[in-house]
Amino acid sequence: MFETKIENLVKEKNYIVRHGQTDYNLRGVVQGSGIDAPLNSNGLRQGKAFFDAYKEIPFEKVYYTGLQRTKQSVQGFLNLNIPSESIIEFNEISWGKYEGLPMTHDENEYYLQMLKRWSLGDLDYAIAGGESPNMVVFRLKIGLEKILNQPEKLILICMHGRAMRMLLSILMNYELKFMDEFKHQNLGLYELNMDDSGVFRILKYNSGAHLKGLELI
């Protein structure tokens, strides 16, 4: 279990999920912020499974990004007329010229080298035409400030894998170079809770319990 002190954090509990599967995910094609792909049939079923498992949670507000795959993933909660808002600053990282391309052997090697540079602390390094981690964190903090300035304390956020890793690093006060410690999967859930002492804990880490028994096609 991770824990840290979060100064000025007013949210008591956060549920943060990655969006459901798209055809780009299924085919191993890079998406990023420049590809606004919808959920495929698997992703829609993942979203329904998550809704069925958590529909009794009295969320006060639901947040999603400016890309349709996140809104579609939490549509069940929106159908309950829970207040909601798009936070475009939570969009996925831009993968630049690699967006929309299959991950070939050479491109995968380039990607792995980039991750290595990030893990060594070179956080201003960006993929060709894309964003660096520091660029993404800058806008994530703007989006986070929008949420923290609102009164709701029990919230659901649906976002994207790489951006989610960075947001969790911010919330847990991790050095950004360790962001890959936060694993993700389609519709994987992180549940974060702040106790009376002001310590923020991860109660569920990339949980896919709600997806057990779900057959993907």
Automatic annotation (TrEMBL):
PROSITE patterns attached to this UniProt entry: PG_MUTASE
GO cellular component terms attached to this protein's record: cytosol
GO biological process, one term: negative regulation of glycolytic process
Keyword annotations from UniProtKB, A to Z: Hydrolase
A Pfam family hit: His_Phos_1
Keyword hit for Hydrolase: yes
One term of GO molecular function: fructose-2,6-bisphosphate 2-phosphatase activity
Keyword Hydrolase annotated: yes
UniProt protein name: Fructose-2,6-bisphosphatase
Species this chain originates from: Belliella baltica (strain DSM 15883 / CIP 108006 / LMG 21964 / BA134)
